[in-house]
Amino acid sequence: TIGVLVIVWLEREISAGIQQRIGPEYAGPLGILQALADGTKLLFKENLLPSRGDARLFSIGPSIAVISILLSYSVIPFGYRLVLADLTIGVFLWIAISSIAPIGLLMSGYGSNNKYSFLG
């Protein structure tokens, strides 16, 4: 959750700079309190599950999408000596792992038992 707070804070600061407006810097030093308030709100949100759908598919789908995206970063070299997996088929493995993410999104759409969320 700390990573989410930092990413949200950076996104707000960068978008404020692009749009030439003031960012969330007035809620505490450097806008840290705004990020903490957003994180607290995120933790206490209600977990909504579809009443007529499959709750298991609806819950597992986003996890499959995120895990496949995070696994795809294991074959990307971030520096000369910063390589997690030195593979000769790295590009093909990256494409194969990245192609699993839409399956997770389709699972969530199917699990909600709603034709519009299944379409995307």
UniProtKB/TrEMBL annotation:
GO molecular function annotations of the record: NADH dehydrogenase activity
Domain of life: Eukaryota
GO terms under cellular component: plasma membrane
Gene Ontology biological process terms from the UniProt entry: aerobic respiration
Localization in the cell: Cell membrane; Membrane
PANTHER family membership: NADH DEHYDROGENASE SUBUNIT 1, NADH-UBIQUINONE OXIDOREDUCTASE CHAIN 1
Family the entry assigns: Belongs to the complex I subunit 1 family.
The protein, known as: NADH dehydrogenase subunit A
Upper taxonomic lineage: Eukaryota, Viridiplantae, Streptophyta, Embryophyta, Tracheophyta
